[in-house]
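Hi R.,

Here's the chain you asked about this morning:
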Amino acid sequence: MSSVDRVRVISRDGNDETEREDAVAVEEPLEIRLKSSGAGKGESFVTTMRTPGHDEELAAGLLFAEGLLDRRTDLVELGRPTDPRIDPELAANVVIATVSKEALARGESLRRRTVMGSACGVCGKTSIENVLSSERPPVASDLHLAPEILVRMPDRLRAEQSVFAQTGGLHAAGLFDASGRLEAVREDIGRHNAVDKLIGSAWLGERLPLSDRVLVVSGRAGFEIAQKAAAAGIPILASVSAPSSLAVELADAAGLTLVGFLRGSRFNVYSHPRRLRTAS
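And here is the predicted structure, written out as tokens:
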């Protein structure tokens, strides 16, 4: 399934009107189902609106951030519906996660406690205490990042946003090392989905915690983005836009360095500024 669709538009400039083709980002629902080994089609856990691509990473990242997946052995398999009677387009919008008995039990508990929407991965969580469980301690990292390296990251991220370049309608999340090298980038119509795809890739590759990496996001830094960064052990989260008050509160409690309004040579540090050293 493509990430970009082509549509006809009427384009107006002053008194001039033309009809032309335009590129738009695809938005489709993705249903994530849970099942145990040997079970049938599985039970629906959540449906989120996303841009197709890296769906398995999205599923893994979301389930990890929600606390359903812990150890790599919790996830047995990620697959699609195989019943030939199911419409191929429908099957392309479903990921089935076969998980351990322990993970399935956590999923049942989460399903009872949490009402999840397409715009927020953790909207059902009612307090920071529920998000920062004892099993996930505060971010521990001795990473220090030179400010002159940090300020170059948004431009490097934008240069790698291939779908955004076509449509102008996607968010991006990029993972950088301390030298400023962009290691991975993911795009999605939902900013939290882009982060889930990035973290899901690292979780599937058994590379967590990302204690020596920097996460840069193209949109605002909301509570759910800070929660996902903290869960992955990322010490620095930077956004080109504003953070929310709850994101600042969570970052402070989680030991996360939160940067906002990262534009040009300017930025604000909202929590744990010790990781951003001066150029001296």
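One quick note: Residues 28-131 form a domain with the Ubiquitin-like (UB roll) fold (CATH 3.10.20.10).

Cheers,
M.
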